[in-house]
């Protein structure tokens, strides 16, 4: 039973207040056909909307409003009893939006003059919608919908669309939809207003039949229809009830009325939106294509970047493996290797506001670590597994006292030492137990030189007393090196020297005790009588065995240009000169025994090394076999530093890693810039999707009103339009990824033609998935504002829209 108690409704525009209903009280029976008559503007449609929960009556706080004094002052009393609508004795005064949604779905069925069917759904789906919102099972929903269509005579039209039906048939569908969820109340607003006379009579007879077991309330301008079909006629004028042909005074104080909450599932929202989108498929396709352009651009950028990075990585795997791990007297540490205080100082970026100058030690701010290379550490490095390292090389500071017989004239051979060494001379390691060499068919092992250098003339060294000359890719050696070897014709000009003039050249290695003479001041000086020393000395004879050049496949190796000799030769010299007079004197002196300059502990070690009295190398080079081997070597070197004080740790430089990081950073930077430019189109797409969704909201306004009348919540309306943008975003993302993948083929052809690199553009599946997610996210963001706007639409105004 439906009861209305002092229902009022007013509409306010600025200072003007229009009263649509003024304290209307009326009760309705559980099953009767009530016709409400009255001129336009009398309030009858407003009353119907309030009964149906599409509009809400004024509550007490609305009436007692001093800004709009249009009611008697007595109504401002605090004890004023505001209006109320009761359904089966249950008050609706405290209903929330969700309660009204459930009320419309559970208890009310609407029959509109303009039908308000959802055009992109079939007849059956239109009738099912109310039950869908109330969560009726699929099988039950379909059977009940068919029963309702059968009752209105449309069982054979279930799969048609509304636009395939006549006006009378569409009104019958609307009636079936109103009946399908078995509501208590049927509300009909001018149900025959758009129909011809014959069809109107058929519809009225059908409504009359429905009223046998339901409450039917019809609003009409036609008194003849009301008189002919209605059981009860109520007349309205200016918001007041003028007359009631068959009033009902019964009241019901208690109620067991329970509302079943409504909800629209995501699948239903997707289906509604998909059907709507399909009716505008070309517009949707163009929208998705435009939205996908940004995805295409970013996907292609990532594809080519990904491919180039793979080629770079492969190149680095093939070439940078040969780059050594370098252990030098000092090393630059990464931030994560610094102490917390050092890191804090390095990362200070803000401008100081202090009025004082801060005095600091630059050495404490830079991330430089001084290594202490000890015999213990050298032994540790020499034990690196031969499974991981191809060789371990050592660079030493030492002066070789060499003399050469140049056509009867004894001349010194000035091989560079100290800091000059890396440019012109280096040491190669022939110590077999440190190095694993590729095995030849005859079972012998190759030397370091044979693995990395081609022989241009002569032969590879066969013993420690044989050295080689290293030339560059164009067989060049600088003139200073050749001058120091005694080729004086090239002191002031460039030229060429035959290989045969170099290969076989012999030099005598003079012992320190023969080469240096102690003077009266206690210091030492090189001998001036080179011929006598050359004749007297029984030192080793050093021979240039061959001329070598780095192989094309080798990217980086230890040897510099000039004369290169073996570590074995160095060990010989070290052993021979360790107890020489000049070395003993230098060990006991705090000044340089040759230059008389004062020495620090560090420079004293350098001076001893120069004279052959220090076995600690200047630098250590460890050559991994592969990137995997490098990781093992790094773990091995890190193990040495475990639990050691900061100053006792030995920090290495991974040259290959630094190169990899540099190229990776460059590629990442380029990719980031290009992606940023391409992302601009995504922002444009976001705005465009927002506009398209807003247009869709305008186009589907009547559908919004129909869904709200069937009990859809505001969030369900939002979900419908979010589902639409979800579909567009997904389609756009998939379309963009598809286009990007197809474009990789011509892109690869162009890159192959220009760079000879194959299969560069490679679309990473993870990137593809992420971009689709980005596309969906952006379209959801773009459509969120129109979707919320749609949810806030007044259902009454939405139903009136054209």
Automatic annotation (TrEMBL):
PANTHER family: CELL DIVISION ATP-BINDING PROTEIN FTSE, LIPOPROTEIN-RELEASING SYSTEM ATP-BINDING PROTEIN LOLD. The lineage of its organism: Bacteria, Bacillati, Bacillota, Bacilli, Lactobacillales. One of its GO terms (cellular component) is plasma membrane. SUPFAM superfamilies: P-loop containing nucleoside triphosphate hydrolases. Belongs to the ABC transporter superfamily. Macrolide exporter (TC 3.A.1.122) family. It comes from the Bacteria. Its main location: membrane. This is Sulfate ABC transporter ATP-binding protein. It is a multi-pass membrane protein. InterPro entries: AAA+_ATPase (IPR003593), ABC3_permease_C (IPR003838), ABC_transporter-like_ATP-bd (IPR003439), ABC_transporter-like_CS (IPR017871), MacB-like_ATP-bd (IPR017911), P-loop_NTPase (IPR027417). It is found in: Cell inner membrane. Residues 2-263 form the ABC transporter domain.
